[in-house]
Amino acid sequence: MTNSGNNLWAVIMAGGGGTRLWPASRRNTPKQFLRLHGHSTLLEQTCERLEGLVSPERILIVTSSEHVAEAQRLLPKVSADNILGEPAARNTLPCVAWACAEIARRDPGSTQIVLPADHLIEPAEAFRDTLRAAVAFAECNAGALVTLGIRPTHPATGFGYLQTDKAIGDSLGQEVFPVERFVEKPDAAKAQEFLVGGKHYWNGGMFIWTTENLAKGLETHATETWNALDGASAQQVRLAYPSLESVSVDVGLMEKAGNIFMLPMGYMWSDIGSWSALEEVIPADDCGNHRSGSGPLIAKDAKGNITFSDKNHTIALLGVDNLVVVSTPDATLVCPKDKSQNVRAMVDLLKERAQDLL
What we know:
single chain; alpha/beta; Spore Coat Polysaccharide Biosynthesis Protein SpsA, Chain A; 5-stranded mixed barrel; 4-stranded mixed sheet; 18 strands; 27% helix
């Protein structure tokens, strides 16, 4: 039987840095706290996407301790007790394990949806339907750990992939596939092979499982981390967290566990991994440019550009094509659109020369 919502929880992972979206994304305002598309931040949109499925009192936000106050400000319906501040950045496995320990303490018979805070997904109702089907499958299959895969639209080399086999059946009308293995980011030739073959899906880092199944998986495959967090007090978590292994859920749990299943997503999804990704989700204006942020854009004989600025700053483009132009109060980025994946290299340079701009 599908979870009615009475004990369905959502864990929103909001601790990432988003360095490839510098200079808008900084230590103080990482990507999930930015308004890149629409009138609210990515974090707010992630929570809004769950409306009618998970109630606000059953949403846990896991973010860095420095951003707890901002998360509380943006999400007034989420209780302060439901916003967990990580004392150190330790990747996604400790984040998920801490949230699991907290939910297990409050509601051991529950089911969890685990989502990154910084993705764009449309339409929201189609996504909720996929989540409902995933929840129903997770609850009816002992030991199952469920993830979502995105049908590739092009031979992307920037994503990990999920390799699947034939569908084993369906859940609420949506196909369910066994996951054979997790594949690291491929080269261009391999990505093209994946696209044509039809058995590989982008790994979006979204998970659905019962609290009991996750706890068992963590106890088996991430024993040290689980033992440090299960039943720990707030003080014990603060002391233990910085020494926990820094590892992703994929590497620390999913690649080791059996009984992994996937439901596909056949609609718009983007992790906004670079500035160039915005052209996939923001419609072009009459001149063929893509404007993010609230700042105006004026363009003449300019097309294929991506811009970001705030309402107090106008960007004017004349006779230039295919650029990324990002303006913030203290820094401006200009680069060719096809180089936007390399912004992280600029961040590395700033670590040496201008730490105050990070």
